[in-house]
Amino acid sequence: MLKNVNGILKSGGKFFIEVRSIHDEIFGLGDQVGRNSFIHDGHFRRFIAKDELELNLIESGFKLLYSEENRGFAPFGNSDPLVIRIIASKIGGD
Hints:
Shape: elongated
Radius of gyration: 15 Å
Strand order of the largest sheet: 2-3-4-1-6-5
Order of helices and strands: HEEEEHEE
Number of strands: 6
Number of domains: 1
Distance between the termini: 17 Å
Structural class: alpha+beta
CATH topology: Rossmann fold
Strand content: 35-45%
Low-confidence stretches: none
Helix content: 10-25%
CATH class: Alpha Beta
């Protein structure tokens, strides 16, 4: 997916991504349906390792502008999941 996004963006174009961290307390709950992927309470959730996502972005031709793993990014009801938020820009020509 990251290579496809990189192919669409112009040089310097920004890519924003927010995903659940593997360090979130519900990681591993429910039925595992793939690597870091679970169905829990009727919801599919895929959890991401921050260092792997950062490396994949860099290898796909992005420069990291901002990267943080924290709570408070996506609170909903009584839930405040541990989320990774990254802003990256496309490196190079179009």
